[in-house]
């Protein structure tokens, strides 16, 4: 664990983002995605915050059955039903778990559906179905529709929740419209067959950002938007969300250096006199080696990540001789402003999803009200 570096997560920013999501979705119910340790922010801490928003939230989304089991074993009584979206596990080995606990598989496979419907102990479980409308990752196919309808009629089941997944809602291209059309066609086929559909969701962060909400949707499934960044930083969407965390660290050593000296592994050449500020972050904390060259602000002065990022330490170079000015100073790598996380993601040639999810368990998560 770290002493001088931590990820601070703020409840008031989460509340703000939930309000933005609710307003942007015409007050539809929310299914927050907390997979991958809540995008690196800590799944149990996030759940503790979200427990205060029972009016807005219906379910919590996770990727794997193991994530749902972790929540169940960690909390005596989770507030929300847990939806498992992708790694459902073998039904034969986990049917007792699905029947005994409020964990709901999002079924996207025909064979899994057959087994699920045939088990007496799962008759009372809600039925959540996911259809592939063109992403070609997970989901029942349109060609499966006739058999799905026949199975539901055979077992006298309604659909508690029908969903699909956009592949390019952040682009707002013709494929986005094609997926919508296919999803509406699937809905209409069920209705024509007198199969009741209680809830519907397909909207995600990007469709919310672009104000393209499916009218028939009862729920929205925000992922990245909940945590603050926008799904694409190629255009300014003027979103009012806030980054829910601050990544903070502290200078633990200041070293005066001269031009011509070298620093660290690989002997990076120092080209001018200045200071190296040593901070306790590294790739062991999920800070990629590609952070090298990134500019940060320290005491209103530009400091550059210098040389190779180590497992445990990073050096920042500043053009200054005032060692006392920087001793023990706090450094905020990112804060609530979208522009900061976007700048880091661009420097790393990646996306805020990855910046967050890379953060390791060695970095403490601290949960603050404001």
Structure notes:
31% of the residues lie in helices and 22% in strands. With 370 residues, the protein is of the alpha/beta class. The radius of gyration is 24 Å and the shape is elongated. It contains 13 helices and 19 strands. The protein starts with 5 loop residues before the first strand and ends with a strand. The model has no long low-confidence stretch (mean pLDDT 94). Strands 3-4-5-6-7-8 form a 6-stranded parallel β-sheet. A 5-stranded antiparallel β-sheet has the order 11-14-17-16-15, with no helix packed on it. Strands 18-10-1-19 form a 4-stranded mixed β-sheet. The protein has helices at 11-24, 35-40, 43-50, 65-74, 91-100, 110-118, 145-154, 174-192, 205-209, 224-227, 323-326, 338-347, 352-357, and strands at residues 6-10, 29-30, 60-64, 82-87, 103-107, 128-130, 159-163, 197-201, 219-220, 245-250, 253-257, 262-263, 268-269, 274-279, 295-298, 301-306, 314-318, 330-334, 365-368.
